[in-house]
Design a protein that fits this description.
The chain has 160 residues and is of the alpha/beta class. The chain is built from five helices and seven strands; from the N terminus they run βαβαββααβββα. The chain has a seven-stranded mixed beta sheet with strand order 1-7-6-2-5-4-3, covered by helices on one side.
Length: 160
């Protein structure tokens, strides 16, 4: 069974709040796949996920380094933040050895749909859609997962 939950966020701060709720829900072994156009808010959401996990370190886009590991000083799961935008195949993603990080961490992959879907039994897809008006910060965030805990996280974020 697949659960879907949708939430509208109006600002970058609300996107981080939603991410924090997802981060508090996440457990080691989870893979969160982020999909959305350039500038949709994938990295902003990941900043919130880091906060929810208890990670204070600054999270920036891994576009040019492909993958970053953020340590968790609270002893919780580390955050592995990867960007598959420049990767063209599952083989190139396999070279990142993300599965090695799953035991101790939560793996967030921007642009990873179709490339990391088999990485874990717990894969969550987050699709971020923006309006056609570039001045409008409003985003629609849809979370698709087989585990209802994610729907609860979307509905109970700090921004609601």
């Amino acid at each position: 069974m697949t659960d879907r939950a949708t939430r509208v966020v109006a600002t970058a701060d609300e996107m981080r709040d939603l991410g924090a709720s997802l981060g508090r829900t996440a457990r080691a072994g989870d893979v969160i796949v982020l999909t959305g156009d350039l500038g949709a808010g994938k990295t902003t959401l990941t900043q919130g996920i880091a906060r929810g996990l208890g990670i204070a370190e600054q999270v920036t886009s891994p576009t040019f380094v492909i993958s970053r590991v953020h340590a968790n000083p609270s002893g919780g799961p580390v955050l592995v933040h990867a960007d598959a935008y420049r990767l063209g195949s599952v083989r190139e993603v396999d070279d990142l050895d993300l599965e090695q990080d799953l035991e101790a961490g939560v793996v967030v992959v921007e642009w990873g749909s179709g490339l990391v879907d088999d990485l874990s039994e717990s894969v969550v897809h987050v699709v971020i859609t923006r309006t056609d008006d570039e001045a409008d910060e409003t985003r629609v965030v849809e979370v698709v997962a087989a585990d209802e805990r994610w729907a609860d996280a979307v509905g109970s974020g700090e921004g609601t």
